[in-house]
């Protein structure tokens, strides 16, 4: 059976059983619904009804019986500790030599002025989502992607449309994906990988996605993936602020989501979260847990960044073995724990990276979790 059909059938079952869940869940907590019980009509009587006084108070109604519901896993989700850890040690690589940017930081102008207030609707980046990494020579079955996302109850799709090294190549994907996604009630967030070696050139590429029309429609948000010098990104605070000010001015009220490093103790000291905050509407930290407990990392990430901007968590549904992490995909229970812990901590949404490696267990957990 084809994967998309299997997922669609599984989702129907989940949604069918989830009706009771949706009716009894509020803020991620299972709360018994009130039970309405029909009783026989009272018999006729000639006895006068006494007036309600301090001596004739009405009897209290019995407490409603709890309604038992079922979910894929328990809610609240208990910790889910990864197995297969620690990973095998990797041999040491060559010494790191930081590259040199095309334009020195000292030669960049100050950030451009942007409106002090803006009215940005964050519904497009709320709830559940999935990330797609496309390249200039990639092919995209937009119909299949949209069907899978819809069956899993997703709210948005995040799709790579360019990068400093590859340039802008998003049109051929957005032209087919945006209309199909919008017809199914899904939002499309374009994302880009800027190195910020030349922030002006990176901003011009972002503007093609932000201001373009694709199948007669616009994207629903834009997300620059701003990493560190170890990934080839020049993320000094003045460079980041200047770049984001350019795309903020172009975006108007379109949501700008900064995809950022997980706020570990080290990143909180070295990464420019505060320089980004005035120009973005949401932080999307990459919470790839490998051998760590996913719920704890989700909670810590929300607590650290929600002081600056709302948080949309990006979780792991790919094999980190090639990067030196734990081998294999995260389990469905880990995905469930990540989603539940993040939602309870206050995240406005959560998504998984990456579509091409996500399999049935991960799709099932993502689809079954009742993110409201």
Total helical segments: 10
Number of strands: 11
In CATH, the architecture of one domain is Alpha-Beta Barrel
How much helical structure, as a percent, in the residues?
A: 25-40%
How much of the sequence lies in strands comes to: 5-15%
Mean pLDDT: 86
User: How do the SSEs run, as a string of H and E?
Assistant: HEEEHEEHEHEHEHHEHEHEH
Distance linking N and C termini: 30 Å
Structural class: alpha/beta
Please explain how this structure is put together.
The chain is of the alpha/beta class. The chain has a domain at 121-368: Alpha-Beta Barrel (TIM Barrel), CATH 3.20.20. It has 10 helices and 11 strands. The chain has helices at 3-24, 142-151, 171-183, 199-211, 237-251, 265-270, 273-276, 294-305, 332-345, 360-368; strands at residues 25-26, 29-30, 127-132, 156-163, 167-168, 187-193, 221-224, 257-261, 282-286, 312-316, 349-353. Strands 3, 4, 5, 6, 7, 10 and 11 form a 7-stranded mixed β-sheet that branches. Strand 6, helix 4 and strand 7 (221-224) form a beta-alpha-beta unit. Helix 1 runs parallel beside helix 2, helix 1 (3-24) packs parallel to helix 10 (360-368) and helix 8 (294-305) packs parallel to helix 9. Residues 1-57 and 64-69 have low confidence and may be disordered.
Write a concise synopsis of the structure shown:
This protein is of the alpha/beta class and 372 residues long. It contains ten helices and eleven strands.
Structural topology:
Elements: H1 3-24, E1 25-26, E2 29-30, E3 127-132, H2 142-151, E4 156-163, E5 167-168, H3 171-183, E6 187-193, H4 199-211, E7 221-224, H5 237-251, E8 257-261, H6 265-270, H7 273-276, E9 282-286, H8 294-305, E10 312-316, H9 332-345, E11 349-353, H10 360-368
Parallel strand pairs: 3-4, 3-11, 4-6, 6-7, 8-9, 10-11
Antiparallel strand pairs: 1-2, 4-5
Helix pairs in contact: 1-2, 1-10, 4-5, 8-9, 9-10
């Amino acid at each position: 059976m084809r994967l998309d059909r299997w997922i669609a059938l599984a989702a129907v079952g989940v949604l069918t059983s989830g009706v009771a869940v949706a009716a009894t869940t509020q803020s991620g907590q299972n709360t018994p619904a009130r039970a309405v019980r029909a009783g026989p009509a009272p018999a006729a009587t000639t006895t006068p009804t006494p007036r309600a006084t301090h001596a004739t108070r009405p009897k209290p109604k019995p407490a409603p019986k709890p309604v038992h519901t079922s979910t894929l896993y328990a809610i609240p989700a208990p910790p889910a500790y990864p197995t297969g850890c620690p990973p095998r040690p990797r041999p040491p690589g060559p010494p790191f030599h930081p590259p040199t940017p095309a334009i020195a930081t000292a030669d960049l102008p100050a950030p451009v002025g942007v409106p002090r207030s803006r009215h940005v609707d964050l519904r497009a980046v709320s709830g559940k989502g999935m990330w797609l990494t496309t390249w200039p020579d990639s092919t995209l079955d937009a119909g299949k992607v949209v069907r899978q996302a819809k069956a899993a109850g997703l709210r948005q799709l995040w799709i790579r449309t360019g990068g400093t090294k590859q340039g802008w190549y998003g049109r051929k994907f957005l032209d087919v994906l945006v209309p199909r996604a919008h017809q199914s009630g899904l939002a499309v967030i374009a994302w880009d990988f800027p190195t910020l070696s030349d922030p002006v050139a990176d901003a011009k590429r972002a503007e093609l996605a932000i201001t373009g029309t694709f199948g007669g429609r616009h994207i629903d948000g834009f997300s620059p993936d701003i990493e560190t010098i170890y990934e080839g990104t020049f993320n000094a605070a003045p460079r980041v602020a200047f770049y984001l000010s350019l795309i903020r001015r172009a975006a108007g009220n379109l949501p700008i989501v900064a995809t950022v490093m997980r706020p570990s103790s080290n990143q909180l000291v070295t990464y420019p979260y505060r320089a980004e905050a005035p120009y973005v509407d949401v932080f999307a930290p990459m919470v790839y847990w490998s051998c760590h407990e996913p719920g704890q990392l989700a909670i810590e990430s929300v607590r650290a960044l929600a002081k600056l901007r709302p948080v949309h968590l990006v979780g792991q549904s790919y094999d980190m073995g090639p990067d030196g992490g734990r081998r294999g995909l995260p389990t469905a229970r880990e995905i469930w724990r990540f989603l539940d812990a993040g939602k309870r901590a206050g995240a406005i949404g959560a998504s998984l990276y990456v579509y091409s490696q996500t399999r049935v267990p991960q799709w099932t957990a993502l689809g079954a979790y009742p993110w409201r």
